[in-house]
């Protein structure tokens, strides 16, 4: 399916929300995809439309920048970008950004791609510096003069120093030292204070060949940290207390850092936040766009936030291939484990039929996953089990395509990055 057709399908959120009744939703998805041979992954277009609409509503008018790592399918990125409320991409590698920004037959490149993480890929830097059209569309992330040095060394081989001006974004660390939980945050940048941000901004503008166009600060301890973990009420209270304090601290520090840097450079954008923090990040007047990606697919990590609950738009299907004992069934595949601190929450969640459990000594396996539980006895060879990944974009690394479904059947498919022969991380 083309991005334009998909954009039309997801332009309006559906009147009904079938996923709110799991006992109908998952069997309906099963019927809709009965002709397909598992293993495959699906995206429900109604749920995707609902999620995209909710994310925009939560941002209260602040544009959303789509976090591509949480999607990893070019037609879906293009389709969401065609919706009101969305503008620009937050990419995860420079090679990816160049690919997304490049015009190709029938697909105009995306004109605003910020690489959300620093790059030391000299070949990709050379390619960027050698192409002024791409250099006008792609913005590099920096938090250290050492990165500027590396970029300069790489591009000296392409165009001589400074011939093509490269757009850069300064990353401010958004971490928070919590009294209750210790340091929280993703250790993203050495630039933490206003004075450090100011000093790096001066270093960038004083250097030929770079244009400081943006700032970014990602508060992972709020946006990416669940505040309602199942069965851990005390920990949940500590997390929520930390998040309240962190929000207040960051709002002040971000506003001051942005003001200080704006006095040095004409910033086009200030990005922050993610799916889990849209309300608070968009409420800060210093922020001009908020990143969001995971909330589109609604992976199961996002079942545990108090402020919002995305529809389970993305899922995958594993077939039952054998019955090692009457009370067990063995699924093909299943070991699609998410990144992050290892633990049970990184395992796929078995959604349907309900009442299935992985075996503690096996869990989700490389090639097979035995399951027990009340529903396992009833499973027969050839039956299917529906599952959801913990995270959003990592699902796309396991399949060539995402099958698009609605309540009545399969409506098409779109390639993942992998399906287009692209693996970036
Ligand atoms: C820089 C940055 N911004 C935003 C996000 C949030 O993305 P999502 O909306 O998929 O949680 C992330 C995720 O890790 C990120 O690294």
Q: What do you see in this structure?
A:
There is one protein chain. Helix 1 crosses helix 4. The two termini are 25 Å apart. A hairpin with a 3-residue loop joins strand 7 and strand 8. This protein has 425 residues and is an alpha/beta fold. It is built from 13 helices and 19 strands. The longest helix is centred in the middle third of the chain and has 30 residues. The strands form three sheets. Strands 1, 12, 13, 14, 15, 16, 17, 18 and 19 form a nine-stranded mixed beta sheet that branches. Helix content is 31%, strand content 21%. The structure holds pyridoxal-5'-phosphate. Pyridoxal-5'-phosphate (PLP) binds next to strand 11 and helix 13.
Describe the secondary structure blueprint for this structure.
Layout: H1 3-9, H2 22-32, E1 40-44, H3 45-58, E2 64-67, H4 74-81, E3 86-91, H5 94-101, E4 113-115, H6 122-129, H7 132-135, E5 138-142, H8 145-159, E6 166-171, E7 176-178, E8 182-184, H9 194-205, E9 210-217, H10 220-223, H11 233-262, E10 269-272, H12 278-283, E11 289-292, H13 294-297, E12 314-322, E13 329-332, E14 349-352, E15 357-358, E16 368-372, E17 384-388, E18 401-405, E19 410-415
Parallel strand pairs: 1-18, 2-3, 2-11, 3-4, 4-5, 5-6, 6-9, 9-10, 10-11
Antiparallel strand pairs: 1-12, 7-8, 12-13, 12-17, 13-16, 14-17, 15-16, 18-19
Helix pairs in contact: 1-4, 6-8, 9-11
The structure holds pyridoxal-5'-phosphate.
